Amino acid sequence: FEGRDLWQGAEFGREDRERLMKILTIVIPMYNVQEYIEQCLQSFAIPEIMNKIEVLVIDDGSKDNSANIAKRYEEIYPEAYRVIHKENGGHGSTINIGISEAMGNYIKVVDGDDWVEQQGFRDLVCYLESTTVDLVMSQYCWVDHKTMKKSWEVDRLCKRAEFEKVYLSEDILADSFLKMHAMTFKTSILKNMPERLDEHCFYVDTEYMIFPLPYVNTVSFVDANVYMYRIGMDTQSMNLLNMQKRCDQHEKVLQRLLIYCRAHRGNINERAMIAAVARVVTSQYKIYLSFGHSRKKAMIQMDLMLKHNYKKIYDAVQNQAVCWIRRSRYCLFDVAAFAVRRSIK
User: Fold this and answer.
1) Region for 176 from its dihedrals, namely left if φ exceeds 0, alpha if ψ lies in -120 to 50, beta otherwise
2) For residue 249, how many other CB atoms are within 10 A of its CB?
3) What are phi and psi of 59, to 5 degrees?
4) pLDDT tens-digit profile of 96-125?
């Protein structure tokens, strides 16, 4: 067990040893989600695996009843749940704390307004107990907040991957659909990587997804639908109107990812990083389009900058509307902007 060196030469009580020997740490960023946190926390209360997981609830200065609900789970299941209170610092700060506090062999982040499907989660934990790979990929599901209808962003995370087969990352990651909800990392990778997520900033889930990639050597896929991702809420950061309000934060994260990708040029997982950053670029273009003509210049400047400084990322953008805009030498910007703006009214 890789964590044994953590306690050699030290005195630990039984509770400390149990916490150190967990298979999986679930990090739950929590901020004012009293309507949803019960469903989230309850989804991990699976008797047969409670001794194998730790659930770290990182309370980011909630002002509602979220902390009290989480505290109740900590009192009922002290062997598995732990609540950590901190001043408000944003999503990235909660994940940073979760990484530093994690004692499980693996880490998975599940936001406080989402939850896991219990059978799929059992299957994931069972597989983690039997493997030593750096990254395990599992399916996730969109769940409409109003109708509770389920859908999948992609049918398969990697169409050519065989389940539970160990792959070298350089052979498979570039052909995989990478999303935070699908990823379970070996804890040692996240603890040892020098980068930490931006704080007081939205959209850092892409940093969490991309920063570990240079240090990942092996990957497996499990046949399990694990993560239930709630969509359709007005407060969500990926709501386009909210993305307009936080355009500068999205630009900040994208800029950091571009620099990071350049710094790891030649890495075995460079192609996977490029594909992931290209999707962030596409989101940035969508934000510019949603503003209409007023952001046409900003998009052109950014596009030309990418073409000259980050050509591989520029070429990796596959969005059809962006390709049309480029081919028209940006003459179709206003047409595309009209379509985007109409979709959010």
Assistant:
1) beta
2) 18
3) -80, 110
4) 999 999 999 999 999 999 999 999 999 999
User: Residue 69 is which amino acid?
Assistant: I
Task: Select from 103, 45, 98 the least CA-distant residue to 75.
Answer: 45
46, 81 Cβ separation under 8 angstroms: no
How far apart are the C-alpha atoms of 136 and 295, rounded to whole Å? 39
Taking only the tens of pLDDT, the chain with its 345 residues reads: 344 344 344 444 545 544 557 999 999 999 999 999 999 999 999 999 999 999 999 999 999 999 999 999 999 999 999 999 999 999 999 999 999 999 999 999 999 999 999 999 999 999 999 999 999 999 999 999 889 999 999 999 999 999 999 999 999 999 999 999 999 999 999 999 999 999 999 999 999 999 999 999 999 999 999 999 999 876 655 567 878 889 999 999 999 999 999 999 999 999 999 999 999 999 999 999 999 999 999 999 999 999 999 999 999 999 999 999 999 999 999 999 999 888 765
CA–CA separation, 133 and 220 (whole Å) = 7
C-alpha 213: how far from its chain's center? 13
| Measured CA distances, 225 to 69, 101, 179 (Å) | 26, 27, 14
